[in-house]
Write a structure and sequence with these properties.
This protein has 241 residues and is α/β, with parallel strands linked by helices. 36% of the residues lie in helices and 21% in strands.
Length: 241
Amino acid sequence: MSHTSKQTIVLVHGAYADSSSWNGSITALVEAGHHVIAVANPLRSIEGDAAYLRSILDSIAGPIVIAGHSYGGVVMSHAADGHPDVTALVYVASFLPEPGETLVDLVTKFPGARLGDAAQPVLYPTPDGGTAPELYIDQARFHELFAGDVDAEVAQQMAVTQRPLALAAFEAPSTRAAWKSIESWVVAAQQDLAVPAELSRFMADRADAHLVEVDASHAVTVSQPGVVTDVILQAAEKSAR
């Protein structure tokens, strides 16, 4: 592949969000010449969500850059592990767990994570005929805790349309870490109350990832899409092959 060719950019949203959270970046990525796919992350289990993302990666011809927001980074870390066509990973206000680590382990490692205080469990039916809890963020606190630098009207829409994360996904240990073998970038949001900036710096350092810091909330893909887009394009350019 020549260096003038473009990768496919795959965007993976996290918990309490959906694919529209990438809307601020999509046009610029397409205009830069990339094919773009914003994946609907199931948010049910790390292994199941990763298997779904892997099936999408396997359907793509040519090199791939993946960007994951929040929990989407965990799914990305699993799905991309060992994939021959993934050239770069971009973790946006995201988690980079080691195998064996859970998200609970990471969010309690440093102070500043406050989303758990507003998480509301609701039971949903499971395929085995039982029930299990999924978590929503209290709509009244969504703006403050998730999207503090987003316009109030937009934050309200995000709160109403949020997609829940199964508690099992939050508590399950990671089993794979693609960042150990694929060059990675980390966008740390300095006002993040879900993935505190100190935690992002720690994870970026141990992953030997390129670190970019931005004065933004956890909803940085919505509030600062230009910065996020620039980092994705940098990763694509540096990993072109």
